[in-house]
Design brief:
This protein is mainly alpha-helical. It has one domain. It is built from six helices and no strands. Helix 1 runs antiparallel to helix 3 and helix 5 runs antiparallel to helix 6. Keywords: Membrane, Transmembrane, Transmembrane helix.
């Protein structure tokens, strides 16, 4: 398979996954949250509450694996077209993604531990501080989205395109 075909295949995977997983995915996973407002009133004991919160962990792992698809495409593109500057930016994307994944997991897991349905605090008030993590996560995700989008655009464009407006000599000139 030629490098151009491999790059095109990566672009076919990268752009839809970037849009659907990174931009629409958080809304879907938020709606699938295990300890929603309907579940909290039914939990009566600390053990039931912990079991419900721990039930969210597999979904958090799956969510982060799905979110990693655009990053995997960036790593493969970087491998196909080695460039020191781009590789550094891909590494920055991976670091930002790791921080965003940790903040997101803490927020989702922490937010599932703050309600017990009866107003009794089961856990430390520190878990209530997780309500501020979406702001920190947003501060990390905005540069991540911009960098991943610009890298994807750079990697998916052909580098061997002829100039857009070639100058043609006038054949009728003396």
């Amino acid at each position: 398979m030629s490098r151009l075909a491999a790059r095109a295949l990566l672009a076919v995977v990268f752009w839809p996954s970037l849009f659907f997983f990174w931009f629409l995915g958080p809304f879907v996973f938020f709606l699938l949250s295990t300890t929603s407002s309907e579940v909290c009133p039914r939990l009566e004991t600390r053990a039931e509450f912990l079991a419900a919160a721990n039930g969210t962990l597999p979904m958090l792992v799956l969510q982060n694996l799905i979110y990693a698809v655009p990053l995997i495409c960036l790593v493969l593109w970087s491998w196909l077209l080695p460039d020191q500057a781009r590789t550094g930016h891909v590494v920055t994307c991976i670091k930002l993604f790791a921080v965003a994944a940790i903040l997101g997991a803490l927020w989702e897991y922490g937010s599932s531990l703050v309600c017990d349905g009866y107003g009794r605090p089961f856990f430390s008030p520190a878990w209530r501080m997780t309500s501020y993590l979406p702001i920190a996560n947003l501060a990390v995700n905005i540069p991540l989205y911009v960098l991943a989008f610009s890298l994807g655009r750079t990697f998916s464009m052909r580098e061997d395109d002829p100039p857009a407006d070639p100058i043609r000599p006038d054949e009728n000139a003396p």
